[in-house]
Amino acid sequence: MISDPQSFLTTVQTRIQSQLNHFLEKQNRVAPRLHAAMIYSVLNGGKRIRPALAYAACCACGGEPDMADAAAIAVELIHCYSLVHDDLPCMDDDDLRRGMPTCHKRFSEDVALLAGDTLQALAFASLSTAGGDAERRLQMLHILASAARDMAIGQTLDLEAEQQSIDLERLETIHRHKTGALIRASLALGALSAGPVNADLLARFEHFGDRLGLAFQVHDDILDVIGDTDILGKAVGSDQRLGKATYPQLLGLEAACALSAQLHQQSLAALAELPGTTGPLTAVTDYLISRDR
Question: For a Cys staple, 51 with which of 16, 70, 94, 182, CB 3.0–4.6 Å?
Answer without folding.
Answer: 16
